[in-house]
Write a structure and sequence with these properties.
Elements (H helix, E strand, L loop, with lengths): L12 H8 E3 L5 E5 L3 E6 L2 H21 L9 H12 L9
Antiparallel strand pairs: 1-2, 2-3
Length: 95
């Protein structure tokens, strides 16, 4: 059986994919992403599946490219530390 024609026959990791791709009453195909948001419409299950795979690949590329600096290396944190070191402490006033 062709898994794209019969998506419910998929096993293993494909089960998640078959649950994400669905057909509405209008006969068009959609796929679901996080937040229960639907992407589509697509004219066929195959088109929805290919589009979902491109979407997932795009998300993976984006997450691989994003790099977060440790807070102590962040420019703002470093500038604040430099300013604190250069600013003299206020003198105690005599009463």
């Amino acid at each position: 059986m062709d898994p794209l024609i019969h998506p419910t026959t998929n096993e293993g990791a494909s089960d998640m994919q078959s649950e994400r791709i669905f057909q509405r009453e209008d006969g068009r195909w959609y796929f679901r992403i996080r937040g229960n948001t639907s992407m589509g419409p697509y004219s066929s299950h195959r088109e929805a599946s290919e589009s979902m795979n491109r979407y997932v690949a795009s998300c993976r590329r984006q997450s691989e490219m994003s790099f977060t600096w440790p807070r102590w290396l962040h420019v703002r944190h470093f500038a604040r530390r430099v300013n604190e070191a250069q600013t003299p402490a206020p003198k105690a006033q005599k009463a």
